Model the fold of this input.
Amino acid sequence: MSGFDAVSGPARAHNIIQVTGAEHGEFDVFHDCARLASDASADEAAAAVVAGLNNAAIAHSPYYAVHSGVAGVDDRIVALPAASGRGKTTLTAALTRQGFDFLSDEALVFSDDGTVIPYPKPFALSQWSAALVGVEAGEGETLATAGDLGVEVAKGGRLTDLIVSEYGQEELTLDPLPKSRAVAALIEYSFNHFKDPERAFRIATEVARASRVWKLGYDSPIEAAELIAHTIR
Done:
């Protein structure tokens, strides 16, 4: 499988994800002793496996990681930090329809010098989101790669724009924000700042100083992506 290295001898599993078949073609998914999905369809089970692998990867990552969508175009890298369920995946997918390449729908990952490292796990799209960006929807969440959306995985680099978004606003707006708001967002939505708070604050501060910071108010992800593309290019 692509992305996995062969080993010369037996290896011990650090994370075990088990998928068991149930009657009527439904599945249960477990990560160690935790149940990730119950009576799930094949699509839902696949999404649960990816979610379990994602959580394990981030938990063991040595890098500073922030819950965020990330996309790139030309020489710009744009981050959309947000909590789960606040539309970052759909908005990131919508940006691919504006010519952006994909870095992640889940994690903005930084090396110690503040360089963005791509983390291109598959998009986990709801049926509504999949239809919005033109991906064939399955039952429950649909997994879609960058290739499924017709784009490339972007190379890493320096973050140039950070967008604090607020979904559900009647008026579409994209206005500048103080850089301090970027620091706050990078800490608030971080997966692992608590492991090394000093390092996290240093990286967040350095990244914020070098980035343009925006506040996005929107209701339509497609219209928001068009505005972002027009503004930052």
The chain has two domains: 15-60, 64-232. The domain at 64-232 is CATH 3.40.50 (Rossmann fold).
